[in-house]
Amino acid sequence: MDVIFDILGSANFWAAAIRIATPLIFGVLGALICERAGVLNLGIEGIFVAGAMAGWLAVYLGAGLWGGVLVSALAGALFGLLHAFLTVILGLSQHVSGIGITLLATSVSYFTYRTALPDVTSPPRIAAFQPLNIPGLSDLPFFGPALFQQTPLTFLALVFVALVALVLYRTPLGLAIRAVGDNPASVEAQGLSVVGLRIGAVVVGSALMALGGAFLTMSAFDAFFFGMVNGRGWICIALVVFASWQPGKALLGALLFGAFDAFQIRLQAQIGQVVPGQVFLMLPYLLSIVALILVARRADYPRALLQPWTKGQRH
Amino acid sequence: MSLRLEPRDNASVGLKLGVSLAAGLIALLLVAIPVLFAGGSPLNAYGLMLQGAFGSMFALSETLNRATPLILTGLACAVAFRAKLWNIGAEGQLYIGALAAVCVGSGLLQLPPALMIPTVMIAGFLAGGLMMVIPTIIKQRFGADEVVITLLLNFVVILFIQMLIEGVLKDPMALGWPQSVPLIAEAKLPKLLPRLRMHWGLIVGLVAALILWLMVRKTVLGFEIRAVGENKAAARFAGIPVDATMLKVALISGGLAGLAGVGEVAGVKGYLSSDLSPGFGYSGIVVAMLAGLSPIGTVIAAVFVAAVFVGADSMSRATGISSYIADLVVALSLLCVLVGSFFLRFRVKFERRQVEA
Question: pTM of the full predicted structure?
Answer without folding.
Answer: 0.94
